[in-house]
Amino acid sequence: MVSLELMCISYKETERMCLYLRRGIIKQGKRIVATLLTVVMVVTLLSSPAAYAGTLEEIFTKPGTGTENDYDRATINDNKYKYYLEDPDFAGATNYTGNDIVLTPSQAQCNDLAEGSTKDDPVYVETPLTDENGRTNVLNWSEEYSGFTWKVKIPVTGFYSIKVEHLSVANDLGVAPTREFAINGEVPFAEAVNLEFKKWFKDADVPKVDVVGDESAPDQVEVREWATSELRDNEGYYMESFRFYFEAGLNEITFNYTGAEMYMGNIIICAPEVIDDYATVSATYPQLDKNGADIIASFQAEYNEKHKELDDNVQGWLSLKSSNMLRPTVSKNTTVAPFKSGYNIINQVGGDTNWSGNRESLTWTFEVPADGLYKIALRVCNNLNIGMPVHRRIYIDGEVPFSELIAYRFRYDYNYYTETLSNDDGEAFLFYFTAGQHTIKLETSMGGLGDAALMFYTQTEELNLLIREINKILGDNPDPKFNYRLAERIPHLIPTLEKLVASFEELIEKLKVVCETDSSSLINELKVAIDTLNEAIDEPIDIPNNMGDITGIQTSLGNWITTLESSALMMDYIEIGQPNAEFKNEKVSVWAELKNVWDSFIVSFSKDYNAAYAELANQGKDIVEVWLSRDREYADMMMDLMNQEFTPDSDYDFSIKLRIVPGQIGFGGFNLLLLSLMSHQGPDLIWGTGAGDVVNYAIRGVGYDISQFEDYEEVASRFNPATMIGLSYSDNSPTTLDGVFGLPETSDVSMAFYRTDIFAELGIDPPDTWDEYFNEMIPAFYQENYHAMPSGTGTFLTQMNGWSWRANYRLSGYDTDLYLKAFQMDVDQYFIYGIDIANQGFQGFRDGDYPYMTGSIGTYTQLLVAAPELLGKWAVAPLPGIVDELGINNRATGGAGAGTCVSIMSERVNFDSDEEYQRRINSCWEIAKWWTSYDIQLEFTYMVDAKFGRENRWTSANMRALVDGMGWTPAEKAVIDEMYNWYIATPVVLGSYQQDRYAGFAFNQVVIQGYSVRDSIDQMIEYINPELVRKQLQYDIIPANDEEIADKTYDVSALTQLAYYRKLREEALKNQNK
Hints:
The protein is of the alpha+beta class. It has 6 domains: 4-61, no CATH class; 93-270, Jelly Rolls (Sandwich), CATH 2.60.120; 278-446 and 567-593, Galactose-binding domain-like (Jelly Rolls, Sandwich), CATH 2.60.120; 451-565; 608-747 and 898-966, D-Maltodextrin-Binding Protein, domain 2, CATH 3.40.190; 751-789 and 839-887, Periplasmic binding protein-like II (D-Maltodextrin-Binding Protein, domain 2, 3-Layer(aba) Sandwich), CATH 3.40.190. 36% of the residues lie in helices and 20% in strands. The strands form 13 sheets. Strands 1, 3, 4, 6, 13, 14 and 16 form a 7-stranded antiparallel β-sheet that branches. Strands 2-5-15-7-8 form a 5-stranded antiparallel β-sheet, with no helix packed on it. Helix 8 (449-474) runs antiparallel to helix 10 (493-515) and helix 29 (992-1007) packs antiparallel against helix 30. The longest helix is centred in the middle third of the chain and has 26 residues, at 449-474.
């Protein structure tokens, strides 16, 4: 008789078995199934050809096998501005030409409902009006207000431009405000989701000079000026401002908060701007002498107002910039002035990651001695992308004077050259200037390359969709010898590939015109892609074998977009001259280059690099020796900040000597720090090492417990509490080592990333719990042949309120029933839910094969920079959790936290007295506090962005600096706050390497070798605990007693670690009692 227990299989277990059949058995038995199918088909063919034909037709036309697409292909990318203008509903509409329509802040209605408001009787929050910076009746818009709506009566149907008066809030943050724009409740196109309103900055001083003569960029200060900005795209794809379609009559426009507070003045709905060409504009010039040949102004592009104050002969200066990242840089080109062999001299603006996109602008002010016609020359260099030009939108006195300057082209050249602003025939443009001060502004633009980038976006969508359809048919491991008849099952396969080829060929012709070359690197890559697609068109039967090449084109499309968006340009100087003036155009001299190499070689013997990191104050003060585990470029930036703080005139009673020792201060290897500590000649402070390293040093007697300082709690409040746990240690040895041994400088947090486009296609939301992950999301994925990524035992264990350790971290926490349950849940991911052990991570997410993944802030930055084609197609979410008995979704997770840290390493043996030793310790503490402070971490974040670009962002451990420096949207900030609340950390445990090692062995035994979960865990514990005891005895720690060994409960858990979790449980208990 079959037992009742076996018969009573729950629905959930049945579902799990179906999934097992779907992924597990099918994956393991694919070849057997394929063989059986082949036999059946052959037998059927031999017995009845007609029957075979019918079966084949049935196979290739049944629903869900790819005969028709799941959603309308015509909607691809139609929400871009480019396609918005082509909307057939707008046919015949023309540009508005009437007077401006002005909407004031007092006309705005806040979209937030006030307390006491009801559905039948809505009451809205009062619009916050104030006076600011010389203006009255302005909108004071902080993040507490979600949005504001204005009603406007439109006189005639047509296209309108919109301008906004705005002013930044005085906070010195580099993040510009952003807002979403909607008309009658709908966002008109994708680019209107996140419109940026620029902030303005300028150099605070002349470049700083260190003790050996090297220069570094000056600090940046915010310039608060009211500006009137037209609504335009953030990246410079379009050469015109946005034109919005309005029907005549009463309409509503809405701005919604997406990031950073601002003041908003009037909104101006007006006629789209029409910029005449040069011929038209120049015909209006007064009749003036064109025979002059003088150069009336010549000035360095990096000079600022301070240079003018110091030298009256300076004829022009950099007066305004749209970002605090736009800092002057160093060029080693011998034709650039000023120049000094062997030294870093600030002598240009721009660079590889500086002034290269996002409509960043630089504005110079110059003086003209007399009314007249003048031409302008710029000394520039464009050498980042081989063969590719860059463009700038050029303003004179705040306006683009004629259409040829809407997107002025700068050709590719490896070396600097002098570009006289001219037409296509080389005839110089003349500008009419009156006597006095004028401005010239250059703003990054994609020019003619914008259309190419938009085409790439469309092609990325087309190809991405096509690849996903193909993969639905091919599955995980396609049979290279099976004919999948893709052209029959996907009728639009060949037409789509042919369309892509035609688009690529059209792009090549456009690029040849824009680049004025037939052989740029991008053109050559497009030709290779065309060959690959043509092979697929000619031989569709071979597509399964060539999917890697086709998927590679999709990846390349994203890279090509990044290439086109990068408009890096460097500038040495600007000259303004009369119509017949001759501008100099120095060429690189071989002899000058050889002389520079020789001079630099000679300087290297006499220039004391270490002197730049030596004493920063007067003789007689204590010298704190700091060892930095970073490269020289980071050290230079850190030194800039030190030079400003620890000056000879400061109140500090110590000096700093900085040594750069990358890779030489970690724990666990033979390095410089270990050797110095053995001889008691180590540093006072180490900087940039791993969090676990400093604790391991402390266990071995080197390190200072910073929790002893009176202001420790105040300083520690800058960081997430769990981050500090990773820098702490406690044991029960006779010395009772118990303390915190460092301050974190960088940190991270885990979060989930999901493809919003694919989730919308599937009709699902990101999972909130692991039950939803396994029982809702994964089945939806598998139905369309998407893949899922696994989680780990540690996450499941902590969310079940277990822990990796017990008995005060002296025994493994892996020998409990709770761990058995968590481990079983882990391996079930592979056995029951069919998740692959190997996964593609970021690339799989980018390609769309893995629509959901976990990652960190680094992943967020990587997606922004390395996958521009996914803009607007992904979002972040909290990690899934496990619901406890009170209904609280426990999302506790580790895997992030402190990255690098600062630690005090001074040894008492090196000092003559306790007083001297404590004075040095106090000095180290002052440096550590200064470095981890909000202002310094925020400034360093901006410096790193300016130097290395967004892809190498500094993720500060200072929570305020992390939030303010990255420009998160409110939704992203909410996710990060939530996950930081759930972040848990484990202190360093002696012998923990053994647990990590054998946990991996146990996983392999179960998943790969087929061992039982219980047997592998029992075997694992036999190796882990003895090693823990051995390490404990080595450091005089009292091991666990028999009672503690027998007690299989956890003395530490997410509940004891997380105040946030305890608070949620307390609230839940109160609600239950009610």
